# Entry
Amino acid sequence: MRALLALLSGALFGAGLHVSGMTDTARVRGFLDFGGAWDPTLAFVMGGAILPMVVAWRVARSGKPLQAPRFRRPQAPRSRGR
Amino acid sequence: MELSWIYGLIGGLMIGCAGAVLLLGTGRIMGASGLVGGLVDGTGQDRGTTAAFLAGLVGTPALMTGLGWQVDTQATTQLWLLILGGLAVGIGTRFANGCTSGHGVCGMSRLSVRGFAATLAYIGAGALTVTALRLGLGL
# Structure
């Protein structure tokens, strides 16, 4: 069941990238080309993606995931002084 | 072409829903680079779940293309350049602890300072590189 949810998530991610046109390298490069023919599409993709995640984080404040014992919190930065 | 921002917004919402499904369903953060990394270097937990996620991520665009929804891409066909680019992305995201999906989508949506910093750094460094290549090499 957990793998099925992960598959659904990956499929949504892939489909979203495809629909938004972000599998086209020219679009990504165009977003970074501020001095040239700037393509703002990536900003809309990023903004659109952040909206559902804002809700998800809010929901995740309480309770636990459907198919896991707990939420994995982002880790604090690790020291890389090796 | 002029409607590309609408497709961008719709696709973006789908990506956000993908992150929400992974977080609320499995408790995990949808960072593509971290998930791939954990699968490859053996440090990742719950690798079956990760593999299922990646199968969906790679398979769906391939399936959509096969069904006739084609998206042009300008990616080079030079294998060595693809490998070099992939290595650069892998090394960079490992140092930064995340990529566009992890820091940009999942990080910024929880108002993470690190997420904002990493995303701004990516855009800045990317813009510098693109501009340098355009002006320097005429690409």
Summary: Chain A has a mean pLDDT of 90. Chain A has three helices and no strands. The helical segments of chain A are 2-20, 25-32, 41-60.
